[in-house]
Amino acid sequence: MKRIALTLALMAGFALGGVAATDAFAKQEDRPRGRSLSRPTETRDQSGEVVRDTGGKPMTPAQRKERGMAEAPGVVQRAGATCTVTDAIYNGAGKTAGPAGTPIDVQTYEVACQEGLGFLLEDRTTEVRAFDCIVAKFAADRAAAAAPAAPAAPAQPARRGQAAAAAPQTAKPPVCELPANANPMAGIQAVANRANARCTVTQVAYIGYVPTTKVTRYELACSEGMGIILDRPDAAATAPSSFTCLAAEAGGYNCTLTDKAARTAWIAGLARSTGKPCQVSDARLMGTARGADFYEVACAGAAGFVMEAKDGRVSRTIDCLEASQIGGGCTLSSTQAALEVREQQYLQTLRASGVVCQGEEFRLIGKDARNNRDVVEFRCANKPVGLVAFIPTAAGGQVTSFDCIEAEGRAIKCTMTDRPAIMRTLTTAMAEKNCTVINYAVLGASGGADGEVLEVACQGGGNGYVVDLPTSRGKPTKILSCQQSASRGGDRCRLPENAGQG
After folding, report:
1. Coil, strand or helix: which one is 275?
2. 498, 457 in Cβ contact below 8 A?
3. Model pTM?
4. 442: closest CA among 428, 455, 425?
C-alpha cells in the first residue's frame, strides 16, 4: 500500500506579514521486491508510482476519474476551498504520521475548478489539507533542485550472478496532472481578477503561507509594468486581496519578478506625465492616504519632488520642502541646497515688507491656501520670541508676521523657539512685580491695544497675574492679580500654579 509523507518546511519570514511557507506534500512508496507492478490496466502518477485504491488494488484512469468525481466535491466542501469542481481524479490511499507519530489514513485527490485555480487535496478524515497547483509545482521544483546527482556508473561490471546496485530512488512531490490544471497561470489570473488587481499576469512565484490570516501569498509579474503581491484566503467566503511591489518594498520585501529597476521605471513613467524636467534616478512609495498613493522621485542634477497619484494618474506634485509630513518626508535626495535658496527668498520678502530677521533656521508649517501663502516659522538671532510669517507665493501678496506668543493665540505652535526662551522675555517684562515667570498661557488678543492678554505664574508660589502685553513685549500696559481680575469680571486664572487665586 502506498505510504504518503507530508513534508513541512519553513521559508524565511516575510516583513509585510510574517509569512512562513509550507511545502506541498512529498510522497514515498515501498516497492515490493522481485516483481513488477506494471500492468496494462494500471495507471501511474507523475513520479511513476502506481495509483491504488483503499484496498491496495491498482486503478485504471477511468476508475480514478469516477471515484474522484464522486468523492472530491465533498472533500472540497470540507476543506472550505474556493472551488466549484469541474473535473477530478483520485490519487490514491495511504498512511502518514499523525499526532505523536500515530499513523493515520489519507485519501488524496486532484480537482479542477470553475474558478480557475486547481488543487491537490489530502483527506485525513478529521481534516482536509488543500494545496493549489502553483504551490504543488513550487514544492516539486524545489525538491528537484535539492535532489542529489545520480551516482556515477561503477568502474567494473557486476560479477556473474550478482545484481548491480540499484540507483537510490528519491520521492517526488506530486503535481497537478488534469488537463484543466495544465496552465496554473490562468488560474492565478482568475484570483487576481477577483482581487480587482490591475495585473495581466505574465509570471507567478509562490511566496508562502501566512498562518495568522490563513492566506496563501504569491508574487505576480504584470504586463502593466508594476508587479503585485496577491493573497488568496483559505476561506471561500473571503475575497482575495493584493498590494503592489512598491508597497511590499516599503514593508521590507523585495519583489524578484519585478525588480528595483522595473519599479523605478514604472514611477518614472508617472513622473514624465507631470511635465517636470527630471531624469529619475530613484523612486519610492511614501504611503497611501484617502485612496491616493504618494511617490517620492529623485532627479539626477535637479530637485526631487513628490507625486500624488490615484488609479495610475498624477493629480498633483509637491515640493520636497513641503512634503515633510508625508511618509517621513523626502529621503532619496538632499534638500539642503533647496532649503538655502528658499530661506533667502523668504528673508528677502520679509525685508521688503519691513520685517528684519537675522535668520538662523526656518521650517515650513503649512499653507494658507485661500491667500496662496506659505506659513513659515523662523528662528531669528534678533527676535528672542521667535517669528511666524505668512509669505505670499506669488507677486502682489501680503506679508503677515507675528511672534510666537501671538502665534500661540492663533493656535499655531512654534517648535524652534522654546517656552523657556519666551518665559525669560516675560520675566523681563514683569520686573516691577519681581516675578520670575515659570508658566504662562495666552488668553487672547488685547481689547484695548495691539498685543495679547496672558496669564502668568511666578516662581515661589506668590501671586499670579493677568497682564496686557504689548506687541513690543516690553512693560505690560495693565497688570492685575488673579484675584483682582476675577473680582472685576475679567479673565480667571487657570494655570495649576495659580490654583485658588481666583
Report:
1. coil
2. yes
3. 0.62
4. 455
